C-alpha cells in the first residue's frame, strides 16, 4: 500500500483536518515483477547461445585454427545457435507487437478454411522431415470468424507445428474445423504422441515454459509459442482447451 496524508483546508483558515488515504498497488508491483522476470528470462535465453557462439569462435581462432574437420563441425553448430537466437528474437518481437496492439480489437472477416490449408502446405516440409502425416478434416464452404488474419496464421501454425514436433511417435496429426448449431467455431489439432503430464498442462502458456519429460527438451523451440497463441486468442475472445492423455496423445482445441 502507498499511504498519503493531505491537509483539508477549513473555512476559518486554521489547519485542523487531514485526509489519510491508502492505495493498493499490489497489481502494479506484480506487473513490475512479471516484467523484470521476463527480461531476466529473455536475457538468459539469449546469453546461452551467445556464450556458446563465443566459445566456438575462440576455439576456431585458437586451438582448432588449422583443423578443417573441426571447422565444418563447429560452423554447423554455430549456425544452429544463430538460428535459435533469431527464432527467439522473432518470438520476443511478436509478443511485444501484440502488447502494443492490445487495445485495438481485431476486425477482419477471416475464412479459416483456406487459411488452415495454406498453413498446412507451408508446414509440409517440416512434417516430411519429421516423418509425420497430417490429415485434414475441413468442412465444405466457408468458416468465417472476426479476427486478424496474420495472428490466426500464427495460432494455426504453432499448434500444428507443435503436434508434429512433440507428437511424432504416433506419426499422424489430425486437423479438424467445424461450426456447430450455436455458431461456435472449433479448430482442433490431435496428435498421438507421448502426451503431457497433467501437472504441466496449466502452465503450458507461460512464457519460456517447456515440459522437461522424455526428449521434449531436445526439440527446437523457444518456449514462447503457446504464450503467443494464448495472447492472440485472448484478443480474439477465443479459448484454448488442452486435453492430454499420457501414452495416447494431446488435443489442442481453439473455440471461437
Ligand atoms: P516450444 O515448442 O517453443 O518449446 P511452446 O510454447 O509452443 O514452446 O510449447 C511449450 C511446451 O509445451 C513445449 O516445450 C512442449 O514441452 C509442450 N508441448 C506443446 N505442444 C505439445 C504437444 N502437442 N505434445 C506434447 N507436448 C507439447
Automatic annotation (TrEMBL):
Primary location group: membrane
Protein name as it appears in the record: Phosphate regulon sensor protein PhoR
EC numbers: 2.7.13.3
Reported function: Member of the two-component regulatory system PhoR/PhoB involved in the phosphate regulon genes expression. PhoR may function as a membrane-associated protein kinase that phosphorylates PhoB in response to environmental signals.
Native organism: Rhizobium helianthi
UniProt entry tagged with the keyword Translocase: no
Span of domain Histidine kinase: 41-256
Keywords for this protein: ATP-binding, Cell membrane, Kinase, Membrane, Nucleotide-binding, Phosphate transport, Phosphoprotein, Transferase, Transmembrane, Transmembrane helix, Transport, Two-component regulatory system
Tree of life domain: Bacteria
Location(s) in or outside the cell: Cell membrane
KW ATP-binding (keyword) present: yes
Catalytic activity: ATP + protein L-histidine = ADP + protein N-phospho-L-histidine
GO molecular function: protein histidine kinase activity
Amino acid at each position: 500500500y502507498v499511504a498519503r496524508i493531505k491537509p483539508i483546508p477549513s473555512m476559518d483558515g486554521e489547519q485542523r483536518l487531514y485526509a489519510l488515504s491508502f492505495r493498493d498497488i499490489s497489481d502494479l508491483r506484480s506487473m513490475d515483477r512479471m516484467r523484470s522476470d521476463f527480461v531476466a528470462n529473455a536475457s538468459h535465453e539469449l546469453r546461452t547461445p551467445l556464450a556458446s557462439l563465443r566459445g566456438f569462435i575462440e576455439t576456431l581462432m585458437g586451438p582448432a585454427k588449422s583443423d578443417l574437420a573441426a571447422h565444418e563441425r563447429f560452423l554447423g553448430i554455430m549456425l544452429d545457435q544463430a538460428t535459435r537466437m533469431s527464432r527467439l528474437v522473432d518470438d520476443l518481437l511478436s509478443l511485444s507487437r501484440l502488447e502494443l496492439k492490445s487495445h485495438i480489437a481485431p476486425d477482419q472477416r477471416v475464412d479459416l478454411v483456406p487459411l488452415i490449408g495454406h498453413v498446412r502446405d507451408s508446414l509440409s516440409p517440416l512434417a516430411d522431415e519429421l516423418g509425420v502425416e497430417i490429415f485434414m478434416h475441413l468442412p465444405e464452404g466457408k468458416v468465417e470468424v472476426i479476427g486478424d488474419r496474420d495472428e490466426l496464421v500464427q495460432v494455426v501454425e504453432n499448434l500444428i507445428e507443435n503436434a508434429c514436433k512433440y507428437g511424432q511417435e504416433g506419426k499422424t496429426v489430425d486437423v479438424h474445423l467445424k461450426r456447430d448449431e450455436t455458431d461456435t467455431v472449433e479448430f482442433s489439432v490431435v496428435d498421438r504422441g507421448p502426451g503431457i503430464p497433467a501437472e504441466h498442462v496449466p502452465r503450458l502458456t507461460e512464457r519460456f515454459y517447456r515440459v522437461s519429460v522424455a526428449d521434449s527438451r531436445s526439440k527446437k523451440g523457444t518456449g514462447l509459442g503457446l504464450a503467443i497463441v494464448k495472447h492472440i486468442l485472448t484478443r480474439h475472445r477465443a479459448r484454448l482447451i488442452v486435453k492430454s492423455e499420457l501414452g495416447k496423445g494431446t488435443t489442442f482445441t481453439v473455440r471461437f
